[in-house]
UniProtKB/TrEMBL annotation, chain A:
Residue spans crossing the bilayer: 9-34, 54-76, 88-105, 111-132, 141-159, 193-211, 241-261, 319-338
Stated name of the protein: ABC transporter permease
Membrane topology: Multi-pass membrane protein
PANTHER family per the UniProt record, alphabetical: ABC TRANSPORTER, PERMEASE PROTEIN, GUANOSINE ABC TRANSPORTER PERMEASE PROTEIN NUPP
Lineage top rank: taxon: Bacteria
Organism for this UniProt entry: Streptomyces mesophilus
Keyword terms of this UniProt record: Cell membrane, Membrane, Transmembrane, Transmembrane helix
Cellular component aspect of the GO annotation: plasma membrane
Subcellular location: Cell membrane
Statement: the UniProt record of this protein carries the keyword Membrane: yes
High-level lineage: Bacteria, Bacillati, Actinomycetota, Actinomycetes, Kitasatosporales
Length: 370, 352
């Protein structure tokens, strides 16, 4: 059993490692073709990672990436492709900001209430896709993409000045949230780490525990691996689909909270969009694993934040975007390659063991016959 | 757990220096570039809005002013672009980096920089900051460079109402945000004050946070086609780069387009269609960048709300198309409206 695990860890690491090497190599080729140094951008970016203020930016961004990527990963584990994480995240952030601006409870009630609002909003929005899938067989890929667009319009409408919006110059905001809902950051030399990094830690641990150590997690993975096999062993597949969508949506809902409660305290036109799409790549790179996603989030955030400096050195910071794109492509290919290779190795080994066993029994038969 | 460990590991090593400490520059270094003896900065720090340089519109207008000021005052400068999906923390980082390196003034192009400028300006009281399209930041060293887009758009509305033969005109807004609604409000009022029987078709290309409506010409083209099909024969766009698609579609039907921000009749990228660009509502972002820089060089930095309205020449209606100048009734009506706005007989609404 233990020996088998070692093999699996090796295979699990080989995928992302190959992808990274390929992505770096291809990016260097792009740099060479455009007549630039293929090494200097990396050294600039590595140097950036040693600065305390950039580290704070990286950790803060990674916190949000992590939450959103776990939301995506929960779906992936169930063979569900929740492309709607972005819409769920934005709608939940906007709703939470609105509630936070209009309700002022004491902090110990306000913060849990806001987190609950965010989770419920996200779950509700993802749940629509879940119900459509379980009752009508609508593909969640299609419905969540459409729900993203609907979320955009809904947010635009709700944040209009004549509805709940508050204008601040040319910016549309949801008004400033009550201070009891603000979460202080962890003060460091380079800036403030979002206090809700704690939330990311809790989600990571819970994801790992539930998935690996509970019956529900087993049912989830089993249904994801083979719906019919899971049904045969008594799992209600439809209920699993709906539950997985609800959990995925709830997690997507809290992805924006570190920024909302920790820094911006309002939902406005500058609130970052696209988090949910980035998270898909991160979940892929992290192999849907609670620890893998940590590294994937940090890597992504590092590429985002460290690349800004390239603009001051005559390079285009879009190098990092090229690299992110190549990583996603390479990851998909290398995972498949590694999977096929692993399968082959496994078959060979099983074959060898069988052959050895056959030889052994033949020998003993011969011995017995003698 | 793992998150905590790695996050804390990173954080623990975070006692090192910050990125801006390592390349702090020094006012002396900037001094040799400065043309003026009293000016000690390193030049202009220009931070673009999404879209960046090359949008043929808003950011490019700022860039033009930046280049002009750089050449005239013989100072340096750096212009930097944002990334997709960044938050205020990234903008704060960008502006801090510019100010720390000794750039002065530091200009945020677009209201999205308002909050970040508010934060950073407190840390650098000796640096002049500016935000374009925003007047909400109240710090002594911050200038809010705001434009009265509704006034220029009103004139565009007057011209459209006078030039239309089908009694139908169109307005295409890039993204439905309050700033673009100012364009719509002015335009619609201008049309209606001129001729009540003229109908205005209004369309926005995208809703925030989807800002494709400022950058994708195919969206502008489709919207313009729709309005042309509905009978519009003069179409005003406030859609940045996406508006190029509108102009293209309008020119294909040999109808009138009204440009925005820059005098689009004179833009090289639009040379093929210029005969159909009746006029443009100009918004002198470059001029604002230039005046601000000038004030800093002269040691009397602008501060507080700086309003660039019709009277000040901050907005206006261009007349570079000879065909426009020949339409004397249109030109006269525009001139009359301009005078009325300037002396206050007409007040233009800034919300539709």
């Amino acid at each position: 059993m233990k020996k088998f695990d070692k093999e699996r860890v090796l295979l699990a690491l080989a995928g992302p490692a190959i992808a990274l090497v390929v992505a770096v190599a291809l990016t260097s080729i792009v740099l060479l073709i455009s007549g630039k140094s293929p090494f200097e951008p990396y050294s600039i970016m590595f140097e950036q990672a040693t600065f305390s203020d950039i580290q704070v930016l990286i950790v803060n961004q990674a916190t949000m990436y992590y939450l959103a990527a776990v939301a995506v990963a929960v779906g992936f584990r169930m063979n569900l492709f929740n492309i709607g994480v972005d819409g769920q995240y934005r709608l939940a952030a906007m709703t939470t900001a609105l509630v936070g601006a209009h309700v002022a409870l004491p902090s110990f009630l306000q913060v849990p209430m806001l987190i609950l609002v965010a989770m419920l909003t996200g779950a509700f929005w993802a749940g629509i896709a879940g119900i459509l899938k379980t009752t009508r067989g609508v593909s969640e890929v299609v419905s969540t993409i459409m729900l993203n667009a609907i979320a955009t319009s809904l947010i635009a409408w709700l944040t209009q000045a004549e509805n709940f919006g508050v204008l601040s110059g040319n910016n549309t905001t949801t008004g400033l949230m009550s201070e009891s809902g603000w979460i202080p950051g962890i003060e460091l030399a380079g800036g403030k780490i979002y206090g809700l990094i704690v939330l990311a830690v809790i989600v990571g641990v819970a994801y790992w525990l539930v998935l690996g150590r509970t019956r529900f997690g087993f049912d989830l993975r089993a249904t994801g691996a083979s719906e019919s096999a899971a049904a045969a062993s008594g799992v209600n597949a439809k209920r699993m689909v709906l539950t997985a969508m609800l959990i995925s949506g709830a997690l997507a809902g809290i992805a924006g909270l570190p920024l909302l409660l920790g820094h911006s305290h309002t939902y406005d036109l500058t609130f970052p969009a696209g988090l949910g799409f980035t998270a898909i790549g991160i979940a892929l790179l992290g192999r849907n694993h609670p620890v893998g996603i940590v590294f994937a989030s940090l890597l992504w955030a590092w590429l985002d934040k460290a690349s800004q400096e390239l603009d001051y050195h005559g390079y285009d910071k879009e190098i990092a975007v090229i690299m992110q794109g190549l990583i996603v492509l390479a990851v998909v290919i290398s995972y498949e390659a590694v999977r096929v290779w692993g399968l082959k190795r496994q078959q060979q080994r099983v074959g060898e063991e069988l052959a050895a066993a056959a030889r052994k029994s033949k020998n003993s038969e011969e011995v017995a016959a003698r | 757990m793992a998150v905590a460990v790695s996050a804390l590991a990173l954080a623990a090593s975070a006692c090192g220096k910050t990125s801006t400490e390592s390349n702090t520059p020094e006012e002396t270094k900037g001094g040799d570039k400065g043309g003026s003896s009293s000016y000690k900065g390193k030049g202009i720090g220009l931070a673009y809005d999404i879209g960046g340089q090359g949008d043929q519109s808003f950011n490019d207008a700022a860039y033009a002013g930046y280049e002009k000021a750089k050449a005239e005052f013989k100072i340096g400068g750096v212009d930097v672009e944002p990334s997709d999906g960044e938050s205020d923390a990234d903008k704060v980082q960008r502006l801090t980096a510019l100010a720390k390196q000794g750039y002065n003034p530091v200009i945020g192009v677009g209201f999205v920089y308002a909050k970040a400028v508010g934060e950073v300006s407190k840390k650098f009281p000796k640096t002049t900051f500016a935000v374009i399209d925003d007047t909400t930041v109240k710090e002594p060293n911050v200038a809010g460079l705001a434009f009265s887009e509704e006034q220029g758009s009103y004139l565009a509305g007057v011209a459209a109402a006078k030039a239309t033969k089908t009694k139908t005109v169109g307005f295409i807004g890039g993204v439905e945000i309050p700033l673009i609604k100012k364009f719509e409000a002015g335009f619609v009022q201008g049309v209606q004050d001129t001729d009540k029987s003229v109908k205005v078709k209004t369309q926005y290309l995208t809703q925030p946070p989807n800002f494709d409506g400022f950058s994708k010409p195919d969206l502008g083209r489709e919207a313009a086609k729709g309005q042309l099909d509905a009978g519009a024969d003069v179409i005003y766009h406030a859609a940045g780069l996406a508006g190029q698609g509108s102009i293209e579609a309008v020119a294909a039907e040999k109808k009138w387009a009204i440009g925005v921000d820059s005098d689009q009749y004179n833009q090289k990228a639009l040379d093929k269609y210029k005969a159909y660009i009746l006029t443009s509502m100009t918004k002198d972002v470059g001029g604002a960048v230039y005046s601000l820089t000038k004030s800093v060089i002269e040691g009397k930095p602008l501060s507080g709300e700086q309003r660039f309205d019709l009277k000040a020449g901050g907005v206006g209606l261009s007349d570079s198309n000879p065909a426009f100048k020949e339409m004397t009734d249109v030109v006269d009506a525009v001139a009359k409206a301009k005078k009325a706005i300037e002396d206050g007989t007409i007040t233009v609404k800034s919300t539709p």
